Give the backbone structure.
Amino acid sequence: MGKTIESGWDQRGLPGALGSVISAVPSTIVRPVVLAAKASSNVLDGARNQLRPDARRDDIDKYKK
C-alpha cells in the first residue's frame, strides 16, 4: 500500500495520494469480512455434522453426482 500512495503522490500530489488510499481501503476491509464469513460457515457446518453425522454423508452423496 505504501508504494501505491507514493506513486499517487508523485503523479498527482495530495489528491492522487488520497485517491490511492481510498482505492486500497475496500480490499483491506472486505478481505477480513470474507474470511470471517468463511470461518463461520465452517464452524456451523462442523457443528451440524457433529449433531447429525448423517447430514455430512448426505452432502457427500449429493455432490458426488
